[in-house]
Amino acid sequence: MISNTNTKKTSPSSFTYTVVRSDDEANAFVLPGNHIFVLTGLFRYARNEDDLAAILGHEMAHNVARHIGEKLSDTLLLQLLATLLCLSVDSSGTLSSIFLPAANVLYGLPNSREAESEADRIGIELAARACYDPRAAKRVFLAMKQEEDGLSSRIPEYLSTHPSHDCRISQLDDWLPQAIRTYKGDDYFGAPHRCQQVREDMAQARQAAAIA
Predict the structure, then answer these.
(1) 156 near 102, Cβ under 8 Å?
(2) Please, are residues 118 and 62 in contact by the beta-carbon 8 Å criterion?
(3) Which of 31, 124, 157, 203 is the most exposed place for a label (fewest CB within 10 A)?
(4) What residue spans of 89-193 are helical by DSSP H?
(5) Banded pLDDT at 19 (limits 50, 70, 90)
(6) Segment 146-189, tens digit of pLDDT
(7) CA 21 – CA 37 distance, rounded (Å)
(8) Active site residues
């Protein structure tokens, strides 16, 4: 089952959101063109609007920071280097078969983890500016970590595309004070208590929707 919602199409920074029923998979991703997919398995961890905003803010941040373009450029560069290596040094392809996995571990995966961390940092700021509590991001990762701690095995961080949950939670502790200042209005266009009214309006809208 797929549900699709568009933001205002007149805005160049608009996003399209698609919810995919897949309760066994906890994942979300964004495509070029600002199309975000959320798999329903994530709702095991995202229990309210603030939690969901943390997830969506992270995916938005990937496109804000142009991570997809960077990844494609890096992939093409590595493939070009492997091809040159094969043509100039080892026509059998043995060296390139070693080069590509090594380059991925030493270069590709660290860059991927760095991009994920950057998306975490930008994402909580985006959520805060939209008047969602940025502290929700830490709650989501703590819930994921709790489930992961119950697993018998896990992928080592250096072989993963994402930082460990412990790493991400620690980084959020460093970034959250700034995001909380934005959320409270102390560091966002000099508008103290800006989000208080916004959240009150959101609560009234939810109540009206529940009655309708």
Answers:
(1) no
(2) no
(3) 203
(4) 94-103, 109-129, 136-149, 165-184
(5) very high
(6) 988 877 677 889 899 999 999 999 999 999 999 999 998 766 65
(7) 10
(8) 59
Cα separation values, 10 from 31, 70, 82, 109, 127, Å: 19, 27, 43, 36, 22
Tokens of 200: 């009150």
Q: What percent of the chain has pLDDT over 70?
A: 87
Strands laid side by side in the 35-39 sheet: 2-6, 16-20, 35-39, 28-31
**Residues 50, 51, 55, CA angle at the centre, nearest 5°?**
115
CA separation for the pair 202, 212 (Å, rounded)? 15
Token reading at 54: 């943390």
Tens of pLDDT along 130-143?
999 999 999 999 99
- Return all residues near 207 (Cβ < 8 A) that are at least 6 apart: none
Tell me the Cα Rg of the chain: 20
Using alpha carbons, select from 53, 65, 50, 56 the residue that is nearest to residue 28.
56
Q: Which residue has the tokens 């995966």?
A: 109
